[in-house]
Design brief:
Two copies of one chain form a homodimer. By secondary structure, chain A is α+β, with helices and mostly antiparallel strands. Chain A folds into two domains: about 80 residues, Orthogonal Bundle (Arc Repressor Mutant, subunit A), CATH 1.10.10.10; about 50 residues, Ferric-uptake regulator, C-terminal dimerisarion domain (Dna Ligase, domain 1, 2-Layer Sandwich), CATH 3.30.1490.190. Helices cover about 40% and strands about 25% of the residues of chain A. Chain A has six helices and five strands; from the N terminus they run H-H-H-H-E-E-E-E-H-E-H. In chain A, strands 4-3-5 form a three-stranded mixed sheet. In chain A, strands 1-2 form a two-stranded antiparallel sheet. In chain A, a hairpin with a 5-residue loop joins strand 3 and strand 4. Strand 5 of chain A pairs antiparallel with strand 5 of chain B, so a sheet runs across the interface. The structure holds manganese (II) ion (2 copies) and zinc ion (2 copies). The site of one zinc ion has 7 residues of chain B, from helix 6. Chain A binds a DNA duplex through helix 2 and helix 4.
DNA sequence: GTTGATAATGAAAATCATTTTCAATAAGTA
DNA sequence: TACTTATTGAAAATGATTTTCATTATCAAC
């Protein structure tokens, strides 16, 4: 099953209807290599679906976030950008020039985080790690 | 020299004037154990300075950020909160219940971050690490 | 395939946070 | 003290997001 089919199935599962607008928005989000904000999604989606309203973009993205398919990404350029979520435990590497986002794994700092929390009398719940730099393409420019 | 004196001196250094409003806002920011957004600073400062306008809070906080005295903190509850900056390289541990923020040091992952970036053909520029959990006081409630 | 209940849509209005404008005021230097 | 000019706060402007609501479209039941 393709990712898009999985996403649409999840929508259906929750009793939501499959509409042309939702399909178009999902297409954009699944294709994008970088996190997008609602206005960016709106502009990109309108190329193929000019009558789309931005309200529908807001509603659809919020809904996809609740379904665990999109996640919010915080960057210097804004905290209202969303990226398709990858299953499992990962962290992000983001290009400061073009915004390309890459999930990476392999680092495991949990124990050290636990120790720091303990030292400070905190009960650790979560952690947030994000790397930023220039992606391959953007280094050459 | 007290921290407040250092802050006021930095303002003066940049040709800015010392006003009662700025002093009151700085008092609140230096006293707070957690990151605050402009509206919170406004409410807290108005207790001692009821005629204060919120525009002045926005302007003062932006200015303190540019001076490197405040930093923006990103949290689930909002990305417009500011915390007094600590000199040197630190990371934050934030209570998800009360917002208390603690700087910690001692962890050094730079080499591993470098390696991850390299593996992904990125030129590393920065990293962002933040831990969250329940602080000592909030665990007991 | 029709029908009907109701979820979804988009335009417009409302709301909320932040920024800009501007006349009055206050800080700090001479 | 007098003067220059940065600062202030009210009000207006802006920009992003949310709400409202009449219309339309989906999809399950016939
Ligand atoms: Mn991790
Ligand atoms: Mn670090
Ligand atoms: Zn790039
Ligand atoms: Zn706490």
């Amino acid at each position: 099953m393709q990712t898009k089919e999985i996403w649409m199935a999840k929508l259906k599962e929750k009793g939501m209807r499959i509409t042309a607008q939702r399909e178009a928005i999902v297409d954009i989000l699944l294709t994008s290599e970088k996190a997008l904000d609602p206005l960016e999604v709106y502009d990109l989606t309108r190329r193929s679906h000019p009558s789309l309203g931005i309200v529908t973009v807001y509603r659809t993205m919020e809904c996809l976030e609740h379904l665990g398919l999109l996640q919010k990404v915080h960057q210097a350029c804004g905290c209202n950008k969303y990226l398709k979520l990858k299953a499992g435990h990962h962290h992000l590497l983001i290009c400061t020039n073009c915004g390309r986002a890459v999930y990476f794994e392999g680092l495991n700092f949990e124990d050290q985080f636990e120790k720091v929390a303990e030292n400070n009398n905190f009960q650790l719940q979560d952690h947030w790690l994000q790397l930023s730099g220039l992606c391959g393409r953007c280094q050459k420019i």
